[in-house]
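sorry for the late reply, my laptop died twice this morning and i had to redo everyting from scratch. anyway the thing you sent over, i finally got around to it. pasting the sequence first so we're on the same page, its 215 residues, then the predicted structure underneath. double check i copied it right bc i was rushing
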Amino acid sequence: MSLEKSQKILKAMWDKVAKPSADGKRQIVIKNQKDLEYHYWTGFVDDEIFSLQDWVEAFKDSLLPNGMYLINEAQWLDKAKYHYSGPIHPPYDPMTIREGEWSEEELHELVWEKIKPNVYFSKEDFEKIIAESRKSIPKTSEGKFLISPELKKDWTEFINTYASPRRMLQIGVYQLKAAKQGSAPSGTPSGSGFSQGPGASRQIADQLSHIIGKR
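ok and here's the structure:
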């Protein structure tokens, strides 16, 4: 990831959206914390390095008593270190997973290397979810797991409902490309759990409380 690239992107955003205030100085106005969080959930921030709380805390010096954020140029450009400017890959499609028998080691590698990066859960919470879900996966007499079309559909629904910010960024970019090309990219949801913006993380915690316990 290039800090210089992020600085250029944030400077271009500043030039486009900053407006003059009453004293003539330009500023970016963010109405409330929900709007600020929206930047995080849609992949603007590098979520593999920074948490949502890190992002919100970064704007404390711009927060007004009424909950609005007034951000000057220096404050805005300082946020370049939080910005994600790395590669944007196509959204992962669980429907491409090989059907049939999988060993314990193969399944472990699959869920941690393919499923985990696409959902927004801590390592601890994800472990609990996987431990619970493994109980419903059928096995062969030799103890191997059987991956079926139905299971792949369930996993697709899971990652689309609980999509990580990085996946949301991937979906947004590739849906935009698809709209220009007149087709739908593989693996993208018609409606994600994060499509309504900030607040979805709380809904996710509530929905999965029976598995991962109280927050």
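The chain has ten helices and five strands.
thats about all i looked at so far, will dig more tmrw
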